[in-house]
Amino acid sequence: LHMGKTMKEDLTVVAKYINKLYPPEFNVFSIYAELYHNYFASQAKKNAESHLEDKDIYLLLSWVHNFYPKEMRKDHTLAMELDKVKLGSLLPSSLSKELENKYLDSEEVTVKNSLSRCLDKEIQRWKEDKEPEKLNGHFQSELLGIFVIQSIYSSQKRAEDISKAVGEELSRRLLKELPAFLRSYRDAFEDFKEKSKKHRYYKPILIANINNCWNFR
Predict the structure, then answer these.
(1) How far is CA 67 from CA 4, 64, 163, 191, in A?
(2) What are the tens digits of pLDDT across the range 169-189?
(3) What are the backbone angles phi and psi of residue 86, rounded to the nearest 5°?
(4) I want to staple 167 with a disulfide (CB 3.0 to 4.6 A). Which of 66, 159, 196, 210 is the partner?
(5) CA-CA distance, 11 to 216, in Å (whole number)?
């Protein structure tokens, strides 16, 4: 953040004041911009090649695809000058792709495990001597219906915030995880229906799960 802010502020000063003090053939702005970019890119590459936690990979990819190419161009003066220089990406495409795959693999596993834990909690609640919660006057499982959908949606949104391509790839992967989760949910529910007919709240639990189907659709 400090490096990006410094680069943006300094280049704005160069574009507004220093550039006009030199003849055009000196390409003063281009020289400053390339030197800043090369240093920034070297630091990004150094970080990318070190051991990164998942949240660090996400942040670095956000800089590569989003913050650096877009935020730097919000200032009108800076945008015009940077368009002439064509600085390129902070990371080589191969390294960027490697980080994207790590992020996608990690996010896919995270969502899969989250859905699995959610279903386990729901099954446990079926076994308790408690009536299901009501939403808008109807039996429903807030944990299952709402949490699952929000988990998938928020994961897709985070990926799209990196880039459209990363968002599309994660969506493709999660579209495989959701049916797998729903099959597990169906199997568990069928098992409950068969084995728990004497449960005190058998009927309300059935209604709550049937009402969940609308949300999943």
Answers:
(1) 9, 7, 11, 49
(2) 999 999 999 899 999 999 999
(3) 55, 70
(4) 159
(5) 50
Residue 29 is encoded by which pair of tokens? 């702005």
Residue 144 has pLDDT above 80, yes or no: no
Whole-model pTM: value is 0.85
Q: Which pLDDT tens digit goes with each residue over 19-49? A: 999 999 999 999 999 999 999 999 999 999 9
**CA 18 to chain centroid:** 40
* Residues 6 or more apart in contact with residue 135 via CB below 8 angstroms: 142
Question: What DSSP string describes the chain?
Answer: -HHHHHHHHHHHHIIIIIGGGS-GGG-HHHHHHHHHHHHHHHHHHHHHTS---HHHHHHHHHIIIIIIIIITT-SHHHHHHHHHH----SS-HHHHHHHHHHHHHHHHHHHHHHHHHHHHHHHHHHHSS-PPPEETTEE--IIIIIHHHHHHHHHHHHHHHH-HHHHHHHHHHHHHHHHHHHHHHHHHHHHHHHH-TT-TTHHHHHHHHHHHHHHH-
Angstrom distance (rounded) from CA 38 to CA 44: 10
Spatial distance between the Cα atoms of 206 and 63, rounded to a whole number of angstroms: 47
